[in-house]
Amino acid sequence: MAEIEQRLLMLIDDEPGQSRLISALAAREGWRCLLVRDAETAIATLGTREGMRLSAIILDQWVPGDDACALIAELKARRPALPILMLTASTSPLLAVEAMRAGATDYLVKPVAPDRLMHALRAATMLEAPRDELAPLTEKLMLSPDFESMVGAAPTFRKALAVAAKAARGHGAVLVEGESGSGKEMLIRSMHAASPRAKMPLRIVNLGGVPASSVESVLFGHEKGAFPGAFDRHVGALQNADGATLALDEVDRLPLSVQERLLEALQRGDVRPIGARHSFRVDVRLIVASNIPLEELVAQGHFLVGLHDLLAPTKVLLPPLRERPGDIPALTRFFLARIGEQPGLRELGITDGALSLLSSYDWPGNVRQLQAVLFRAAVFCDGDALTAEDFPQLLAILGDGTAHANGNPRQEASGVMLYTADGNLRPLEEIEADVIRLAIGHYRGRMTEVARRLGIGRSTLYRKLSELGIDNVA
Fold first, then answer.
1. What is the chain's mean pLDDT, rounded?
2. Which residues 6+ apart lie within 8 Å of 472 measured at CB?
3. 218: buried, middle or exposed (CB in 10 Å: 19+, 13-18, 0-12)?
4. CA-to-CA distance for 134 and 401, rounded, in angstroms?
5. Which of 194, 205, 286, 317 has the fewest Cβ atoms within 10 Å of its own Cβ atom?
6. Residue 220 contacts by C-beta under 8 Å, 6 or more apart in sequence?
7. 341 by DSSP, 3-state: which?
8. Residue of 321, 325, 332 lying closest to 420 (CA atoms)
9. Does the pLDDT value for residue 107 go beyond 60?
10. Residue 315 in contact with residue 298, Cβ under 8 Å?
11. Nearest one of 203, 291, 296 to 243, comparing CA atoms
12. pLDDT: is 212 or 11 the higher one?
């Protein structure tokens, strides 16, 4: 890709292992990495010949510590257009808010998956706003792991929750399929919280972030000296989850050789670490998630039929957000309420125009992307409510209108809000009053036309005005 070829990245980091990893990942996509180990050197480097050629900065918060935001602000003051990504081990929303207000382009919580890191770099250094997706913010809100926190009324979504809730009460394996960001992890946590093993730990392994050469060891463990570099004994995820629940995310990335071992282990009910002479009996409840339909991989020969059949006695299919646009207003209000509870932020309202804009977008990153976009908008909002102008990337993509590319509006109830801030339906009386107000405004107070369009008589209209407490409507 031309936009990332020969680009220079400054990495502010004093951890040799992490520096090597990031440098290697960046090199795969044509980046050259300039490593500096302290804040003073970083600032001085900006004025050098190489510093003038920088395309991005990655800053490990550990280097400047409590002064990380001050360093970001200083770097931004000297080079306003330079994207800055902050790596941190902290999950504090307050730190995310402070870093973004100081000028950070993105905020990545360690350990960050290689794909996520490179996506953040690509998105931050695009010459123009991407037309297919908005750069997501890694920071997630800590939501309660229960089905009540999964907001949505679309029939396909409610069906998925019903299947998951029923499966949660059992002990068998469950397969959760859905696009990235559609809520698979939240659903898995909700299932665990409602399961007979709720008091035991839920262990999650993201296979997409594990190198193919290490997957077998991560799942099964190894003995000391089992292979070059095995300096200590390691207990695998399957053995660690004995009596508990193990979730394998991105199971579609599991190598075939490891699939065979996993199938055998699940059929026997025991695990043998690499290099071990005997096996260990385990009782594990397995929940797996996939971004790709596993049946497609089975048909292509990339996934074992036997393992698929064993993992998928129950399948939950989460629909993408673009297939349930009517849920966007309720999700938006739900997330804004949670965002308002975070340190350094406050609860905000949202205008009808902004909701219409959000409902017009396809959301390729699904619910996770919507949450991230709302979080970012809330950080920089100075008013009491978010407006369409608080979403400049969406405005750039969709234009001033709120219609889809095919001309069909996505907002199902233009100008009338159906849900309260907690995601519940508003009382019918309130909705009816809003509809009447909307009609009166739309037809500029011409009451005969308002009554005709609403399908009621003038006398009925005036009676409703009195009952609903709607004042002079001229």
1. 83
2. none
3. middle
4. 18
5. 317
6. 236, 238, 239, 261, 265, 271, 272, 273, 274
7. coil
8. 332
9. yes
10. no
11. 203
12. 11
CA separation for the pair 32, 10 (Å, rounded) = 9
Question: What is d(CA 339, CA 346) in angstroms, rounded to the nearest whole number?
Answer: 7
Which residues face 86 on adjacent strands? Answer: 59, 107
Domains plus CATH for the chain? 2-124 (3.40.50.2300), 155-317 (3.40.50.300), 428-467 (1.10.10.60)
Query: How far apart (Å, rounded) are the C-alpha atoms in residues 74 and 327?
Result: 41
pLDDT band at 435; cut points 50, 70, 90: confident
Distance separating alpha carbons of residues 118 and 125, to the nearest angstrom: 11
| CA dihedral sign, ordered 322, 323, 326, 332 | negative
Structure tokens at 291: 């971004």
Percentages helix, strand, coil for the chain, rounded to the nearest 5? 45, 15, 40
Q: Count of residues for the chain?
A: 474
State both tokens at 246: 């193990």
**Cα-to-chain-centroid distance, residue 226:** 38
- The token duo for 335 is 């997330």
> Who contacts 279 (Cβ-Cβ below 8 Å, separation ≥6)?
268, 270, 271, 272
For the residues 221-232, what does the mean pLDDT come to?
84
CA distance 131 to 30: 23
Q: Give pLDDT tens digits for 149-184.
A: 788 888 889 899 999 999 999 989 999 999 988 999
What stretch of H or E contains 88? strand 84-88
Confidence at residue 414, expressed as pLDDT on a 0 to 100 scale = 44
Report d(CA 310, CA 108) in Å as an integer.
Answer: 35
CA 286 to mean position of chain CA atoms? 23
Q: What percent of the chain has pLDDT over 90?
A: 38
pLDDT at position 281 over 90? yes
Angle between helices 328-340 and 352-360 (to 10 degrees): 120
**What are the C-alpha distances in Å from 36 to residues 57, 194, 264, 268?**
11, 48, 48, 51
Question: DSSP character for 424?
Answer: P
